[in-house]
């Protein structure tokens, strides 16, 4: 099984480092990335541009991981690969949620979107610190994303509300993904939202979220500003 990784930025390099070198070929459109990949002893193919002629230089591959920094170029790459290699398994990294549907239309089989991390996977990740570190480096290195634990202050507008009632509201307003909560009155363990428990929020409860750093800070500030407002 041969895997082609397009782009040798931080994301591409981290993915490549987890795979066996003999199964990987790094395909780049930049001489600096070519040099960097060769220094790491990967097989490298430098292409001039995304054209049928250039892409046909690629020998038989089973998977393509499209991770170019330029979103438009990455999207065009997916479209071109799908046209030339109809049976190729294509995985694409998406930099913004708004472009996800474009990649699907272009022919990507799987999309890696940091904003759409599945909560039950994160449940496993959080229980394995080493795995968490790797995931953070791979997924969050090129983005302003972060995990955060947010304590609900006294007299917060969230107090007394069920988690299911505020889940979509918070995600819609702040573009944050709520992973779970910690009820300090019971224990320090995370109650993951995927378990379907409709917890009533109280002050000192902790919301575990993932999202844009600026959005996390905005949410924290609003919790303080709008105290006492229901």
Automatic annotation (TrEMBL):
Domain of life assignment: Bacteria
Signal peptide: none
Single Gene Ontology BP annotation: potassium ion transport
Domain RCK C-terminal intervals: 135-225
SUPFAM superfamilies: NAD(P)-binding Rossmann-fold domains, TrkA C-terminal domain-like
GO molecular function: monoatomic cation transmembrane transporter activity
Record protein name field: RCK C-terminal domain-containing protein
Organism name: Lebetimonas natsushimae
Upper classification of the organism: Bacteria, Pseudomonadati, Campylobacterota, Epsilonproteobacteria, Nautiliales
